[in-house]
Input
Amino acid sequence: METSTTIVAAFLGLIEGLTEFIPVSSTGHLLLVGHFLGFESAGRTFEVVIQLGAVLAILLLYASRLWAVFSSAPHDPQSRRFILSVLIAFLPAVFIGVLAHDFIKTVLFETPMLIAIMLILGGIVLLFVDRVAPEPRHDDAMDFPLAMALKIGFIQCLAMVPGVSRSGATIVGALMLGASKRAAAEFSFFLSMPTMAGAFAYDLYKNRDVLDASAMGEIAVGFVMAFLSALLVVRWLLGYVSKHGYALFGWWRIIIGGIALALLAAGY
Output
């Protein structure tokens, strides 16, 4: 693996970790930056697989809480219901993701203009929802009703369009369904674990024939950088959104999407 490729892979891993759990679309950022830097992985596997680094970061940070939930599940109805709510929210992504996988990877992932537009539109939606979301009725991510979890799961599927943002879709959906800002972010964290792990496993299976040793080197570098940077973001995010909401991320999306559109219009 060349030094320049290593640096690009590390930079993309850094971007993945910094953006995965905030509602700005990590995949959209990766694809746009990769486009402008001339980086393209076989089957777009790099962009999906390094997300596992971010998943491991959140697993580490929530390890004690996850252990408490699963160890108490045999005798605690709340723990069982929480596990079920996450699984229910995960199911729509399984079915739609498998059915639409090839279209997503070969068409949507290859359309930088669409990604930039979705960043801008998502930013506008985020600014709007941050202002008009109903008064919170659910302050604990572990107590979301099952019907609410299923609705969030279907809303998450919008993020299969790169630029929409998985965390952005789930957070906006949860806010509009009555979750507090902190609870919306936490449920998005928990839902990311099976969703991203499932996407990683399926994508690795689908692209097993196009992976090679050099791709594994790039993925390893990006994976480590995504893990380290995600650790920092998750620790910071809950405290920030509890106090300040999501407007910052709405403006971020609009600015990045606008810059990308300008560069694309200029022929880059």
